[in-house]
Specification:
By secondary structure, this protein is α+β, with helices and mostly antiparallel strands. The protein folds into three domains: about 1-95, 2-Layer Sandwich (Phosphorylase Kinase, domain 1); about 95-310, Transferase(Phosphotransferase), domain 1; about 420-535, Serine Threonine Protein Phosphatase 5, Tetratricopeptide repeat (Alpha Horseshoe). The chain is about 50% helix and about 10% strand. The strands form two sheets. Strands 1-2-3-4-6-5 form a six-stranded antiparallel sheet, with helices on one face. A three-stranded antiparallel sheet has the order 7-8-9. Helix 8 (about 255-265) runs antiparallel to helix 9. The radius of gyration is 31 Å and the shape is globular.
Length: about 525
């Protein structure tokens, strides 16, 4: 979490930055209203350098439109969508807790059991939230056909009060979306995809059900359903190969095994046909097991799990939410590092009549008179007036000079800060995109710009950027591994494609040059042809 000085942004006060992505920054903040009204929010603000890119803007608007229509207790609430000086933003519900991925890691670290009662409750609530989204209709009664496409532990949030929330509909698919996904492009986390999603086929809401089944499997068994490198995981997902949960965990209710098995069927037509159906089976199982889960029990687990940091986080949240943008007498004090602006006294302004409004000169005279020492000697009133008339113009000129200097420094400093910030934002964007491209390259052959292109662009801006240097090296090495793998399986044409693509980007790489010669070897081509004849 990045600590910043509180920043006024439209009707919100941004307190600290929670995360940075390729498209936007996410801030913790609060809504500032009339009469001291305040409400904690999370504000997702699009990067300023992307505001001229229509595709990015459309994606951001799609997310806002879609999320705004989702009003369910198990889906994060969207409060507002706006445009501040060309910067798009989404304001959403602030959740105080952890995502399920963090919870799993923490419980493993502390060796604390989540307990079957809480597991079934969490998955049931996720299924209920998804079921609502899948069945949502517009005002004309047309089904929106929403598919989340990224149901994973990272996108399931558990609050300290025991609420379960689905978050991040950023890559969700709906019939009303402006932007369309290109055919063959895989979106989401490979280890939590359905077979049809992983293979790039057309998907529907039943794809999300498979993802929910994977999470249930992992929570029950304590073991990843699909493990290995991306290619290995992808192959397992496409074939829906996994060890049955009853082989991993003893004394597991057979009814639970049946629920998991039905949710994880590779053929969508034999899978659960709705999330409501799956949620109903989970509820019946809870009843049969005589469990009575609720938010209070889940809250108790969360506070026990995070007992070592809960109070600290709560105090930090209270401190940040207590930040003010006020100065002057009677103003509330702000924590160290909080920014300040001058307070405008609206009550005093409204109480002034037009005749009472002081002129600039009158205002200045009052300032100087209030600091003037009264002379008790026998000087005449005329002498005192003369003294004031001589010194006031000098004071006024000095005052104006100081103001102009301060304003000039502010403009210059602000311009410099904007340039640095824009450069840093662009580097952050390139690094995020490079990471995304690298994940795609581990699944499908890169088309157009690849991760190495993005890393090189970062290095052209910042030659010593360690993340870009490491990323480029990792991407090149991974391409080399792919080439070697394709050579081993006699897929010479694919190996040759990878080599040529990489050499264009990194022409000095000696290992790539050697592989280029190897892939052009007649011996390899002959072996490849022999293999094809053998297969036929």
């Amino acid at each position: 979490m990045s600590a910043i000085k509180p920043i006024s942004f439209d009707k919100y006060l941004l307190l600290d930055r929670i995360a940075v992505g390729g498209m936007a920054e996410v801030y913790r903040g609060k809504l500032i209203g009339e009469k001291g009204f305040e409400k904690p929010v999370v504000l997702k603000k699009m990067h300023s350098h992307l505001t001229d890119e229509k595709e990015m803007v459309d994606l951001f608007i799609d997310e806002a439109r879609l999320a705004a229509q989702l009003k369910h207790e198990n889906i994060i609430h969207i409060y507002d969508f706006g445009n501040k000086s060309g910067t798009l933003y989404i304001a959403m519900e602030y959740l105080f807790g952890k995502d399920l991925h963090q919870v799993i890691n923490k419980k493993n670290e502390k060796n604390i059991s989540l307990q079957l009662e809480n597991i079934l409750y969490i998955i049931m609530k996720v299924a209920e939230g998804l079921g609502y989204a899948h069945n949502l209709k517009d005002l004309q009664g047309n089904k929106l056909n929403i598919i989340h496409r990224d149901v994973s532990p990272q996108n399931i949030f558990i609050t300290y009060d025991g609420q379960v929330k689905l978050i991040d509909f950023g890559i969700a698919k709906a019939a009303t979306k402006v932007t369309k996904t290109q055919a063959g492009i895989i979106k989401g986390k490979v280890a939590y995809m359905s077979p049809e999603q992983a293979s790039g086929r057309t998907i529907d809401y039943r794809s999300d059900i498979f993802s929910v089944g994977i999470i249930l499997y992992e929570l029950v068994t304590g073991k990843k359903m699909f493990e290995g490198d991306t290619f290995h995981v992808l192959a397992q997902v496409i074939e829906a190969k996994y060890d049955p949960p009853e082989k991993i965990v003893g004394n597991i209710p057979m009814a639970l095994c049946d629920i998991i098995e039905k949710a994880l069927r590779s053929d969508p037509s034999t899978r659960y046909q709705s999330c409501e159906e799956m949620a109903a089976d989970l509820e019946n199982l809870l009843y049969d097991l005589k469990y009575r889960p609720n938010t209070k029990k889940l809250s108790s687990f969360m506070r026990t799990l995070y007992c070592d940091c809960f109070d600290q986080e709560k105090q930090e949240m209270a401190d940040r939410m207590g930040c003010k943008l006020e100065t002057g007498e009677g103003a509330q004090s702000s924590p160290a590092g909080a920014g300040h602006t001058e307070v405008f006294d609206t009550k005093h302004y409204q109480s002034l009549k037009s005749d009472d409004t002081p002129s600039v000169t009158g205002s200045e005279n009052r300032i100087y008179e209030s600091t003037e020492v009264i002379n008790t000697d026998t000087h005449s009133l005329d002498e005192q007036k003369t003294s004031v008339s001589v010194h006031r113009p000098v004071k006024k000129r000095f005052f104006y000079v100081v103001i102009i200097l301060l304003l000039s420094m502010g403009v210059i400093g602000g311009s410099f800060y904007k340039k640095v910030q824009k450069k840093n934002d662009h580097i952050s964007y390139l690094l995020v995109e490079a990471g995304k491209k690298f994940e795609q390259e581990r699944v499908i052959f890169p088309k157009g710009n690849c991760s190495i292109d993005y890393y090189q662009e970062v290095l052209s801006i910042d030659p010593d950027n360690k993340q870009a240097l490491r990323g480029k090296s990792k991407a090149v090495n991974y391409c080399i591994q792919k080439v070697q793998y394709n050579i081993r399986i006699f897929n010479v044409s694919s190996a040759r494609d990878y080599v040529l693509a990489c050499i264009k980007i990194d022409p000095e790489n000696r290992q790539l040059r050697d592989l280029e010669k190897e892939t052009s070897s007649n011996k390899k081509v002959i072996l490849h042809n022999v293999k094809e004849l053998f297969i036929k």
